Amino acid sequence: MSGTSGRAAPTRNDVINDAKAHINTGLNPGDWIEANSTPSWSTGLLGVDGHSNWGSLSSLVRRHTESFERDYSFAKYTTGSHTLGGEGRTVIGFRVSSHWHDETNGWFKVTSGGVGSSTVTIEFSSYKTRGCNWGVEAWTI
User: Fold this and answer.
1) SS3 state at 40
2) Nearest one of 120, 123, 89 to 106, comparing CA atoms
3) Whether the Cβ atoms of residue 74 and residue 126 lie closer than 8 Å to each other
4) How does DSSP classify residue 73?
């Protein structure tokens, strides 16, 4: 027991289970999601700093970031992917952000992993003959 509350100290598994309880069911693996003027999509826990239950475990949480920015390619789609996380880690949340705040940034999809897995892989695609600018963040414990 810790402190005077009579509750056991939170564990890594407590955080993972809470993250799984906050999964966004609109981010289904394999489904392309179009930018459509929405600035970001997220699922799980986006870190634990300041969280009333998990803040004491913030030193165990890492934030991983990548960006996918491409110039236009005439008569072609611009595609690519990023994998965040790693061995010995568990993804507790991630966010995909469209850095173009209009309907021309293209699509993204989760191709593998996600909350509760060691990694998450996001694939990006621009519209034909367009560039794109995406960001992805993942928090692991």
Assistant:
1) strand
2) 123
3) no
4) -
Q: Is the pLDDT of residue 7 over 80?
A: no
Strand order in the sheet with 132-140: 40-44, 91-98, 132-140, 62-70
Q: Which of 45, 50, 38 is nearest to 24 (CA)?
A: 45
Q: Tell me: the pLDDT tens digits for 107-129?
A: 999 999 999 999 999 999 988 88
84 closest CA partner among 103, 111, 58, 65:
65
- Identify each DSSP E strand in the chain by its residue range: 33-34, 40-44, 62-70, 79-85, 91-98, 107-113, 119-125, 132-140
Distance, in Å, from the CA atom of 71 to the CA atom of 119, rounded to the nearest integer, reads: 27
Strand 107-113's sheet: what is its strand order? 33-34, 107-113, 119-125, 79-85
Q: CA of 56: how far to CAs of 6, 61, 76, in Å? A: 16, 10, 48
